[in-house]
């Protein structure tokens, strides 16, 4: 995953990464040219720069970026900015969100999550009743259990392992022994590089929240488990209901423990976009579809991607068993299932 930051051409990971970046950027250049051509064909008289405020629907992310205007300056992105944006979407935005969706699909396909899925479907049905079938900013603000499932997935399966920081001044980091309550201080000199292992702290946050929970009765009811005490809400339980009370939520754990999107001034730039994407995707999946993960034993490799992609069969909810048979037959025809 990681390599030393020395450019030794093909002999170092860093050198190979820089070369690969160049190739990717040149491919992106081509995609931008194609998008500009497409745009010109649609309205030959309009140059990219003058198509500001066009009401026409753009077809894909690059088309959208080409039409985007900075609301403060009225300027459009330069080619270099476009390339940076596309790279960010591809590497910071695509796999992180995609892998989280894989995790959601896998978690919810397990028979032991039938309660969670049932409750999700119930919430989405009420949402459609209240706001109509379209996903709007308003309706998406009223999906607390859907949000809880997303939060719990990010807690149980944080995609990013850790982030690096530099100590700007000498620090004393306190470590408290859980058993004895004894403090030990570690000195971190100015300039040292630190890694915050967010995959551990984020999982741990459940324990931290739970310990402040002692004796609080579960009020939300009906989720995957129905814990009646803090001890049953262990960090290894997949339990979205822990998010439904601010007193028990991992977000109320000591600052910085729950950080699937990082923290501080460099917190994930795409956090809101990612959360909206996950909400929309989960809502549409549970409203309209059933699914089954094909290979339950799929190996997950760093950074926790399914090694060969996650094969999932989808069918429309209203088609029931017949839809499932059709999905299996289609998958067999494609050679997915032996
Ligand atoms: C589930 C989805 C995602 C997760 C879990 C995630 C997680 C993270 C984490 C942990 C960091 C490091 C933050 C830190 O250093 O404190 C980060 C940084 C970043 N993310 Fe995301 N991310 C996701 C989606 C996205 C999306 C959709 C985009 C953009 C389209 C994006 C763009 C970025 C950028 C640009 C940074 C660097 C921010 C900076 O250093 O100032 N991420 N992300």
Provide a descriptive summary of the structure in words.
There is one protein chain. With 338 residues, the protein is mainly α. The chain has nine helices and eight strands. The protein has a two-stranded antiparallel ribbon with strand order 1-4. β6 (300-301) and β7 (305-306) form a beta hairpin. Protoporphyrin IX containing FE binds at residues 88-89, 92-93, 96-97, 100, 159-160, 163, 260-264, 266-270, 273-274.
Topology:
Layout: H1 13-42, H2 61-67, H3 79-109, H4 114-131, H5 137-140, H6 144-156, E1 163-166, E2 171-176, E3 183-188, E4 193-196, H7 198-211, H8 271-288, E5 289-293, E6 300-301, E7 305-306, E8 312-316, H9 320-333
Antiparallel strand pairs: 1-4, 2-3, 5-8, 6-7
Helix pairs in contact: 1-3, 3-6, 3-8, 4-6
The structure holds protoporphyrin IX containing FE (HEM).
The site of protoporphyrin IX containing FE (HEM) has 22 residues, from helix 3 and helix 8.
Given the C-alpha coordinates, what overall shape results? globular
Give the DSSP E fraction (strand runs of 2 or more residues): 5-15%
Strand order of the largest sheet: 1-4
Small-molecule binders here are: protoporphyrin IX containing FE
How much helix is in the residues?
40-55%
Give the overall average pLDDT.
Answer: 82
Tell how many strands the DSSP assignment holds: 8
Q: H/E order of the elements? A: HHHHHHEEEEHHEEEEH
Structural class: mainly alpha
The multimeric state of the shown protein is single chain
Regions with pLDDT < 50 over 5+ consecutive residues? 44-55, 209-232
The description of the largest β-sheet is:
2 strands, antiparallel
Secondary structure tally, helices: 9
Radius of gyration: 24 Å
Terminal-residue CA separation: 32 Å
